[in-house]
Design brief:
Helices cover about 65% and strands about 0% of the residues. The protein is mainly α. The chain has a domain at about 1-35. It comes from Methylophaga aminisulfidivorans MP. This is Transcription regulator of the Arc/MetJ class. It holds the Pfam family VapB_antitoxin.
């Protein structure tokens, strides 16, 4: 816990735990999104989207 407080600059154990839980949730969401890679079809024109009008 001391290392977590020192690394984050947070002042309380509660803040450190809450920050850790937020990070864990973010990582899990990213993982679930990555599992969709290559499985979704997209119909669009990327070159047209990139061009300025």
């Amino acid at each position: 816990m001391a290392d977590a407080l020192k690394a984050t600059g947070l002042h309380t154990k509660k803040e450190a735990v809450e920050e850790g839980l937020k990070a864990l949730i973010k990582l899990r969401k990213q993982s679930s999104i990555r599992s969709l890679r290559g499985k979704l079809n997209w119909d669009g024109d990327l070159d047209a989207m990139r061009s300025t009008k």
